[in-house]
């Protein structure tokens, strides 16, 4: 089974120096088919591209691995950048790894083995998250993540971390997950309305599940994830991140909630959410709503396209993850 490893990057030169050699070492151990590493740079302003080229040059003598470097001419955000790389991936399976993620030894084999089931679309990794308070250094708290649960509540999908003792999951993270390219293409990949980031992986996983495909969590494929060192928190303010998160939460509901009960529930509860946001002076909520509203015609078109593949109701899907 041929595999592509896709690494999206934005201003991650230090993370690349640390983690790209580990990814290359993991790739060298792969024996099930051909393997390539694609690093796509989202118009970085640091020395990322030079670091990528230098690290790849050192490793190019290893003929087991092929390399591709893709450079965006302007900053596109996470979903369009990943989609661009996925279109150029030659593997039947591709693995997404953020620059702030490093795979542990024996990461690859259990991940790929899940794809022997041809209904499996995506497989999530065990995410050994190192959580540091903003601006703090030192040893952070380690939290094991990777399996997601969720429920519809007061008009919105509320998602949370699931226990890691089961293999079903509501979504596979775009920061550390594997995807079957043929199904990815059928589902049209990440919805770029979610740019620059957040909710695109939950959206894709949800659409895949409603379309009858399987996604699973693999506890034996472990990655170390240093959240505070990623590009998002270095580029965006907390307020901007909150606005984007709200915007994409609205998009998710408007695109994916197709059960009549959920649609009615949303309209019933939305005044409550507006009043609650007003009372706590949550201006990010209102700005996020307005930014989503501007995109409404495109969201409706996207929803109609997605619904052509749906074979499950929201109720049927979500009862597995309560």
Number of domains: 2
- Helical fraction equals 40-55%
The number of distinct helices, counting runs of at least 4 residues, comes to 12
Q: Order of SSEs, N→C?
A: EHEHEHEEHEEEEEHHEHHHHHH
CATH topology of the largest domain: Spore Coat Polysaccharide Biosynthesis Protein SpsA, Chain A
The quaternary structure here is: single chain
Give the CATH level 1 class of the largest domain.
Answer: Alpha Beta
Q: Specify Rg, calculated over alpha carbons.
A: 19 Å
Largest sheet: 9 strands, mixed
User: Could you name the ranges where pLDDT drops below 50 across 5 or more consecutive residues?
Assistant: 134-138
Shape: globular
Fourth-level CATH superfamily of the largest domain: Spore Coat Polysaccharide Biosynthesis Protein SpsA, Chain A
The chain-level mean pLDDT equals 93
Number of strands: 11
Tell me the distance between the termini.
Answer: 34 Å
User: Strand pairing plus helix content: what structural class?
Assistant: alpha/beta
Strand content: 15-25%
Overall CATH architecture of the largest domain: Alpha-Beta Complex
Concise description?
This protein is α/β, with parallel strands linked by helices and 322 residues long. It has 12 helices and 11 strands. Strands 1, 2, 3, 4, 5, 6, 7, 10 and 11 form a 9-stranded mixed beta sheet that branches.
What does this molecule look like?
The structure is a single chain. The strands form 2 sheets. Strands 1, 2, 3, 4, 5, 6, 7, 10 and 11 form a 9-stranded mixed beta sheet that branches. This protein has helices at residues 13-28, 48-59, 78-88, 108-113, 181-186, 200-210, 231-235, 238-256, 260-279, 283-294, 296-307, 314-318, and strands at 3-9, 35-41, 65-71, 93-97, 101-103, 120-131, 141-145, 148-153, 156-161, 176-180, 214-226. The protein has 2 domains: 3-235, Spore Coat Polysaccharide Biosynthesis Protein SpsA, Chain A (Alpha-Beta Complex), CATH 3.90.550.10; 238-318. The chain is an alpha/beta fold and 322 residues long. 41% of the residues are buried.
């Amino acid at each position: 089974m041929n595999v592509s490893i896709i690494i999206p990057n934005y201003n991650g030169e230090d993370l690349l120096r640390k983690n790209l050699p580990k990814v290359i070492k993991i790739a060298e151990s792969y024996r099930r088919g051909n393997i390539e590493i694609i690093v796509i740079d989202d118009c970085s302003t640091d020395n990322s591209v030079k670091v990528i080229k230098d690290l790849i040059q050192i490793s190019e003598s290893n003929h087991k691995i092929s390399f591709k470097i893709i450079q965006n001419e302007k900053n596109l955000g996470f979903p369009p950048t990943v989609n661009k790389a996925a279109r150029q991936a030659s593997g039947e399976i591709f693995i997404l790894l953020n620059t702030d993620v490093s795979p542990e030894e024996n990461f690859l084999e259990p991940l790929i083995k899940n794809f022997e089931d041809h209904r499996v679309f995506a497989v999530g990794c065990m995410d050994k998250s190192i959580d540091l308070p903003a601006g703090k250094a030192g040893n952070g708290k380690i939290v094991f993540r990777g399996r997601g649960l969720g429920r519809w509540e007061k008009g919105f999908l509320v998602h949370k971390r699931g226990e890691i003792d089961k293999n079903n999951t509501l979504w596979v993270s775009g920061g550390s997950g594997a995807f079957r390219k043929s199904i990815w293409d059928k589902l049209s990949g990440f919805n770029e309305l979610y740019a620059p980031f957040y909710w695109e992986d939950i959206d894709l996983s949800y659409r895949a599940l409603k379309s009858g495909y399987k996604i699973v969590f693999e506890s034996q494929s472990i990655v170390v994830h240093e959240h505070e060192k990623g590009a998002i928190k270095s580029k965006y303010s907390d307020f901007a991140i909150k606005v984007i998160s709200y915007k994409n939460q609205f998009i998710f509901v408007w695109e994916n909630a197709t059960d009549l009960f959920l649609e009615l529930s949303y309209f019933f509860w939305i005044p409550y959410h507006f009043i609650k946001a007003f009372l706590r002076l949550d201006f990010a909520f209102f700005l996020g709503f307005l930014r989503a509203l501007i995109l409404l015609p495109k969201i409706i078109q996207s929803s109609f396209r997605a619904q052509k593949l749906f074979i499950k109701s929201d109720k049927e899907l979500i009862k597995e993850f309560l």
